Amino acid sequence: MRHNKKFNHLGRTKAHREAMLSNMATSLILHKRISTTLAKAKALRVYVEPIITRSKEDTSHSRRMVFAELQSKEAVKELFGEVSTKVANRPGGYTRILRTGYRLGDNAEMCIIELVDYNENMLGAEAKSTATRRTRRSRKSTATAKTEENQAEA
């Protein structure tokens, strides 16, 4: 029985799973978006979001803690330099998972996981969608429409 065992083991040993998630987190930080399976993306989101939260405070202790997870100097430098400034005022939810369909070979559900603040297309769409308001009513109010109808009858 697997009572109280909530995370996905992904069919790997502990060492293999940790190494894979570390490598995927490094790639996500360096490239800002990666394509993977949905199960791996969900596991990666749980793994990488606390690391990004830790990068908001630029101290030597937090750098060492992040380096212990990622094992990549380039990723730590990128994370504490560029990424942490973009996510400084965001209270969480640094990643977005976009489903892309199914893989041809084994029908695994594929997706793209990306850092939220780095997709200019989505940022432009959010700004555009909040700027326009649409209503089902006509432009004229019902009171002015009735007075115009009364004048036309007379």
Automatic annotation (TrEMBL):
Statement: the UniProt record of this protein carries the keyword Membrane: no
Family annotation (PROSITE patterns): RIBOSOMAL_L17 (PS01167)
Family of the protein in this entry: Belongs to the bacterial ribosomal protein bL17 family.
Gene Ontology terms: cellular component: cytosolic large ribosomal subunit
A Gene Ontology BP annotation from the UniProt entry: translation
Biased segments, Basic residues type: 131-140
Region (Disordered): 128-154
Protein's name in the database: Large ribosomal subunit protein bL17
Top-level taxonomy: Bacteria, Pseudomonadati, Bacteroidota, Bacteroidia, Bacteroidales
Assembly description: Part of the 50S ribosomal subunit. Contacts protein L32.
Keywords per UniProt: Ribonucleoprotein, Ribosomal protein
Pfam family, one: Ribosomal_L17
InterPro entries, A to Z: Ribosomal_bL17, Ribosomal_bL17_CS, Ribosomal_bL17_sf
Keyword Ribonucleoprotein: yes
GO-annotated molecular function: structural constituent of ribosome
Highest taxon, organism lineage: Bacteria
